[in-house]
Design goal:
The chain has 373 residues and is of the alpha/beta class. It is 33% helix and 24% strand. It has 16 helices and 18 strands. Strand 12 (268-274) and strand 13 form a beta hairpin. Helix 4 (79-88) runs parallel beside helix 8 (162-168) and helix 10 (202-210) packs antiparallel against helix 11 (215-233).
Length: 373
């Protein structure tokens, strides 16, 4: 099997440490060389892949002009991992958000966006306090300790979610409701000495529902480009804007339902991940048989590795002992337009046209667009 290796491109997790270094925060360094700044904002556009931006450059002329190079987001290429990379400056093997869903030993499979049991929907905020799942210091805590106004400008509906607490502790939360106040609040924060993280989710939503590159997706991309233009036009002197994304997206038109494939269920006690990136948790003593079955059935449609080989290949970056058990005994990353669905257990996810999570360039590469006031 031709196993993909993580490239030498800068990782999404390196962006905020580089921004904090540009702001003069002590102890922060970065392989990304950024000019000194008085204030800075990292704006994350959920679902904006590097390839998608290149293919639809006419719909986003401002972003296209500013985006001179790509980043890689690491594995899995999904929102929980990307948001945690912003919040910690680390890859998933250290911050521990190793999937849209993943097993936390002793508590079952956690849906990291909803903070509920992926098996029965139970609220897990009591059993799994957010800062126990992600206990590392956040980039916002570092910014605040250095005397910066550390702020998150994002949808008001996310203001007190468990994922927000896990990844954005130390920031004040400025809840917004639409693109207009997202731009306005971001510029308000940048007017003082500050570090700001801003987030827009709807491009990803429309990519899931209608497909990346669909008419609806392209119309939303035009609005995103206007958002970026509005912030760039209003940047105060000495302010830095870095626009990034958490993953790209592909249209999945080759689906295999795991629930209808008995050979892929044998010896499996739980599933994590998502349609394009699966954690497969085996019954005791069954990992080797599960691996053989998955490699045989999926063939060239997915890269299928045992946990240790996926770690050795660098998929998750450096992996801590705390995080290692969250990774499946077997890890499957989809190739092409393939998806591993669960029609009954994950009906909504199965129905989506656009998907992400895997190691393809379409999912891994995202833009780094920079502007200065």
């Amino acid at each position: 099997m031709d196993v993909p290796q993580i490239t030498d491109l800068p990782h999404l997790g390196q962006v905020v440490p580089a921004v904090l270094a540009a702001l003069g925060v002590p102890g922060e360094t970065g392989s990304l060389a950024l000019p000194e700044a008085r204030s800075a904002c990292v704006l994350l556009i959920d679902g904006l892949g590097w390839q998608l931006l290149a293919e639809h450059a006419a719909d986003a002329p401002v972003l296209t002009e500013l985006a001179k190079s790509p980043l890689r987001v690491g594995f899995p290429s999904t929102t929980a991992a990307g948001v945690a990379a912003i919040g910690t400056g680390l890859a998933s093997g250290e911050h521990g958000m190793v999937g849209y869903t993943f097993e936390v030993p002793g508590a079952g499979v956690l849906n990291a966006l909803r903070w509920r049991s992926h098996e029965d929907g139970r609220d897990l905020r009591g059993a799994l306090p957010p800062r126990s799942v992600q206990p590392l210091p956040t980039t916002f805590e570092a910014a605040a300790a250095a005397g910066l106004d550390a702020a998150v400008v994002s949808s008001a509906q996310f203001s007190d979610t468990a994922l927000t607490r896990a990844t954005q502790s130390g920031a004040r939360y400025a809840g917004v409701h639409a693109l207009g106040d997202l731009a306005a609040r971001t510029l308000e924060v940048l007017a003082s000495r500050s570090f700001c993280y801003a987030y827009h989710s709807e491009l990803d939503l429309l990519g899931h529902l209608y497909g990346p590159g669909s008419t609806a997706w392209r119309m939303q991309l035009r609005h995103v480009d206007r958002l970026v233009e509005s912030i760039v036009d209003g940047l105060p002197a000495g302010a830095l804007l870095a626009v990034v994304a958490d993953h790209g997206m592909v249209t999945v038109d080759d689906k295999l339902d795991l629930e209808d494939t008995p050979s892929l269920l044998a010896g499996v006690r739980a599933f994590g991940g998502e349609v394009r990136a699966r954690h497969v948790y085996a019954e005791p003593g069954a990992a080797a048989d599960v691996l053989a079955a998955w490699q045989s059935v999926l063939g060239s449609r997915a890269w299928v590795l045992p946990r240790d080989e996926a770690i050795a290949a660098g998929w998750f970056g450096t992996v801590s002992d705390r995080v290692r058990p969250r990774i499946g005994d077997v890890v499957a990353a989809a190739q092409g337009t393939f998806g591993m669905v669960r029609g009954l257990a994950e009906a909504v996810e199965t129905s989506l046209i656009g998907q992400h999570g895997s190691l393809t360039e379409a999912e891994q590469l995202v833009p780094l667009a920079l502007a200065h006031g």
